């Protein structure tokens, strides 16, 4: 979903910067607060950022959309460090990818953050929270969150493209055309991300529950018994 420079019109990408900033600024404040409370938070956050960087670099070009398909990792990041912090991580990752790898663009960082870091991160996070509230097993809740976050990322990216490029075609129709352009490559990637999210989260709960944020520990307190998961 890394939309390149020149694809979106200024009338589209400028407001997307503003919307992304509305999530990034609270994320910066949250990171500062949690870093002051816990010395291990910044290294853990940096590790998550590296993971998102690597995962979202594995892309497949999608010529139909002027963009690309790839796993995102932002649903997993949002579960681990929170959705607002994930928005900040995504913006930083997208900046370095655009500068050093030519992957995405500078003018489209706001749009790409909105789709990958905000739409993907928040949708995956809320999916996780709702499923866990109904006592869905950890692996299934995490896997579903990874799948939903990935698909919502590309729904948002297709919508961003449609806003700028639909011309005389109805917006919703153009939106679905762009989304279907992603479909052949993105569906298997979303399934792979679901499996990856489930495996990583379950492994972390089993081996390093001390690294998980307080909200996640509370969610899992009934399932962790002497280092074992009851799920």
Automatic annotation (TrEMBL):
Pathway annotation: Cofactor biosynthesis; adenosylcobalamin biosynthesis
Membrane topology of the entry:
Multi-pass membrane protein
User: What is a biological process (GO) this protein takes part in?
Assistant: cobalamin biosynthetic process
Transmembrane region positions?
7-28, 40-62, 74-100, 106-126, 138-163, 175-201
User: Where along the sequence do coiled-coil regions lie?
Assistant: none
Compartment annotation: Cell membrane
Q: Which GO terms describe its molecular function?
A: cobalt ion transmembrane transporter activity
Matching entries from Pfam families are given as: CbiM
- Fetch the InterPro entries from UniProt: CbiM, CbiM/NikMN
Q: Which UniProt keywords apply?
A: Cell membrane, Cobalamin biosynthesis, Cobalt, Cobalt transport, Ion transport, Membrane, Signal, Transmembrane, Transmembrane helix, Transport
Q: Which PANTHER family match?
A: COBALT TRANSPORT PROTEIN CBIM, PTHR43627
State what this protein does: Part of the energy-coupling factor (ECF) transporter complex CbiMNOQ involved in cobalt import.
Q: Quaternary state and partners of this protein?
A: Forms an energy-coupling factor (ECF) transporter complex composed of an ATP-binding protein (A component, CbiO), a transmembrane protein (T component, CbiQ) and 2 possible substrate-capture proteins (S components, CbiM and CbiN) of unknown stoichimetry.
What is the name of this protein? Cobalt transport protein CbiM
């Amino acid at each position: 979903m890394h939309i390149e420079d020149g694809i979106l019109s200024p009338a589209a990408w400028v407001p997307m910067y503003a919307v992304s900033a509305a999530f990034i600024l609270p994320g910066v404040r949250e990171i500062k607060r949690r870093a002051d409370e816990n010395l291990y938070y910044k290294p853990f956050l940096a590790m998550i950022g590296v993971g998102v960087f690597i995962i979202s670099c594995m892309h497949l070009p999608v010529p139909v959309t002027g963009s690309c398909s790839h796993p995102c990792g932002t649903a997993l990041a949002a579960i681990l460090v929170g959705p607002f912090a994930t928005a900040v991580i995504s913006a930083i990752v997208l900046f370095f990818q655009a500068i050093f790898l030519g992957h995405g663009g500078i003018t489209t960082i706001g749009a790409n953050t909105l789709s990958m870091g905000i739409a993907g991160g928040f949708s995956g996070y809320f999916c996780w929270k709702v499923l866990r509230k109904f006592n869905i097993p950890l692996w299934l809740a995490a896997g579903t969150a990874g799948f939903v976050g990935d698909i919502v990322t590309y729904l948002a990216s297709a919508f961003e493209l449609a806003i700028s490029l639909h011309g005389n075609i109805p917006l919703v129709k153009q939106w679905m055309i762009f989304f279907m352009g992603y479909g052949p490559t993105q569906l298997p990637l979303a399934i792979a991300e679901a499996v990856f999210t489930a495996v990583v989260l379950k492994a972390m709960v089993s081996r390093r529950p001390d690294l998980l944020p307080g909200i996640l520990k509370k969610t899992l307190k009934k399932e962790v018994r002497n280092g074992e998961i009851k799920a």
